[in-house]
Design a protein that fits this description.
Helix 1 packs parallel to helix 11, helix 3 crosses helix 5 and helix 6 packs across helix 7. Strand 9, helix 7 and strand 10 form a beta-alpha-beta unit. The relative contact order is 0.15. With 323 residues, this protein is α/β, with parallel strands linked by helices.
Length: 323
């Protein structure tokens, strides 16, 4: 099983300039055999949140081999050419390590911040990925879209990977699964997608026809994770900060269709997570592999967890990978 480490980008005044803890975790994950470090995106976030693309560039400069993935960039908020150029250059600078994961977005506040109408988000998403993919793979692009028009456009340099970096897309509704199969190379689940729903959604995603130029149909399951000597040790380290995060999400996601999934207790969360002793975590990873997952992205450090506890669990998951 390939593992990704979802890094905590919540900022505070002491860490905003350096991402010191994230760099230390990324380096350890690289040594431990993780496939990717994975970043998310937030805007209008009072506690502070590191910007996704510059953070990914910083982490690229402080690692050597590990993949650099996003899950995900809110594509409708971006000018497609700027996004294509930035990600292409990051792929070049990192030696071909980028996986670009996207989401539609859902918060009205974020769309208002960027001057984008929420009703346009699907059309903007598809136009953005169409232009981005063509700029990455074609010598010259002319495209007249609803929101963006380019004529005789090209990128120099194009991405290091051939034919291009892989594209992921996240979401849970049927339209997202169809769109992912048609335009992207992998589907990333929600962290709070119930295990009972995953087999059906994986089957639905894999049943959709692949679009021209797509590079496969990866299934990437995103899960809360913590591996400790015993399940009691895992709960002691994780419970308070994780429930605090879910409490904050209840307000953060109040405009999201899945907001109610965050008003849950420890047992609800652990039932769909990779949390416990090494044996329990190995069993859980095998459970997702049997469902058809090609990789699992683990969020191991909610805000409020110490760096020492986060590093300890990265080492423990690394021992599972090497064992």
């Amino acid at each position: 099983m390939r593992l990704g480490l979802y890094l905590n980008l919540y900022g505070d005044r002491a860490d905003r300039s350096s991402l010191k803890d994230a760099v230390e975790q990324a380096r350890l994950a690289e040594e431990a055999g993780f496939e990717w470090i994975v970043l998310g995106e937030r805007h209008l976030h009072r506690p502070g949140y590191h910007e996704i693309l510059t953070s990914l560039t910083w982490l690229a400069a402080h690692t050597d081999r590990i993949g650099l993935a996003t899950a995900g960039i809110v594509a409708p908020l971006y000018h497609p050419v700027v996004l294509a150029e930035t990600l292409a250059h990051l792929d070049v600078l990192s030696g071909g390590r980028v996986t670009a994961g996207f989401v539609l977005g859902y918060r009205p506040e974020e769309f208002a911040l960027y001057g984008v109408a929420p009703a346009e988000r699907v059309a903007r998403f598809e136009e953005c990925l169409t232009i981005l993919t063509r700029l990455w793979t074609e010598a010259e692009v002319t495209y007249e879209g609803r929101f963006t028009t380019v004529r005789e456009a090209f990128l120099s340099p194009r991405p290091a990977q051939s034919p291009r970096p892989r594209l992921w897309n996240g979401g849970r509704v049927p339209a997202v699964l169809e769109r992912t199969a048609r335009m992207c190379d992998g589907w990333t689940t929600s962290f709070n997608e119930l295990d009972a729903h995953l087999p059906g959604k994986i089957a639905e995603y894999l049943a959709h026809p692949r679009g021209p130029g797509t590079l496969g149909s990866e299934v990437i399951v995103c899960r809360e994770g913590y591996c400790a000597t015993t399940s009691q040790d895992a709960r002691k380290a994780l419970e308070e900060p994780l429930l605090g995060l879910y409490g904050a999400y209840t307000d953060w996601k109040r405009t999201s269709a899945d907001a109610s999934r965050y008003a849950q207790g420890w047992d609800d969360i652990t039932a769909r997570s990779v949390i416990g002793s090494p044996a329990q975590c190995a069993e859980r990873l095998g459970h997702y592999a049997a469902m058809g997952a090609d990789g699992v992205v683990l969020r191991v450090q909610p805000p409020g967890m110490s760096q020492a506890d986060a590093l300890r669990t990265i080492e423990n998951f690394g021992a599972l990978l090497s064992g």
